[in-house]
Amino acid sequence: MKGLNYLFAAYTAVWLAIFFYLLSIGRKARRLERELEEMRRPRH
Amino acid sequence: MNDSPRLWRDQLLPALTGISMLAALYMVFVLVPSERDQGIVQRIFYFHVNLAWMAFGGFVFVAVASVWFLRTGSRRADQLAHANAEVGMLYTTLVLVTGPIWARPIWGVWWTWDPRLTMTVVLWAIYAAYLMLRRLGGGDDTILRYAAVLGIVGTLDIPLLILAVRLWRGVHPAVMLSEEKDSGLQDPLMGWTVLVSGIALALLFTWLVSLRARVLAVDESVAALQLEGARS
Fold first, then answer.
1. Are the beta carbons of B215 and A7 separated by less than 8 Å?
2. Which of B13, B21, B43 to probe the A interface (max A CBs under 10 A)?
3. How much is the pTM?
4. Range of the domain at B215
5. Which among A4, A9, A25 is the nearest to B211, CB-wise?
6. Structural domain spans, chain A
7. B39 pairs with which residues across the strands?
8. What is the dihedral angle through the alpha carbons of B112, B118, B124, B129, rounded to the nearest 10 degrees?
């Protein structure tokens, strides 16, 4: 079917970008969790 | 303690986003008929156009939140402006990616400096500058205020972008409607697919903004606690 590869390329680009953006938010959230955990630890 | 906002953000919103997105993809790929002249590739339209409208909405919200921040100094307003600008940038980037993929088989070129396309690049650059200014400012209040002003002024590009097709002649279509049968959005299913895709992308936008704003709020709290710890 003519143009099918363009259609899939467009929607793949959309989903990849959303996936990587969600991944970046998840990474930031995990970094903050680690920092909070370090702050909770008693200092010697 | 009221858990309603958390229930909405963590459970209802992602669930509604997922359901509406599946419905939109089913309509785009299975249900909706192909447009007569452009064929199957025209189905890019359903996300391309809605991504653009949602990005515009996000940037208008940046302006509203920026005015709120400039008037009251509210951290919440600044975080919402930041999150909306970031997700708006993501959507605008996707408009600039899906557009050329659609243009190549229809216009025969990936890119042309058509007024609307150029104004979209300008909009992208304005909010890229907004985000870079914030990042380089490192939380400095004066820089945040400059960024807020840029966030407000940047929305002036949106009406120009919408009117670009009518003000200056270009190749970008103004509307996808046609009087001819089986052409444009004459089939009612095409209209419904636009609507469902719009709802799905709006819910996704809201969910991403709520997640990003939450991370920004926690980030600021952690930084404040670290500063307090360093002082004591």
1. no
2. B43
3. 0.90
4. 40-219
5. A25
6. 1-44
7. B35
8. 120
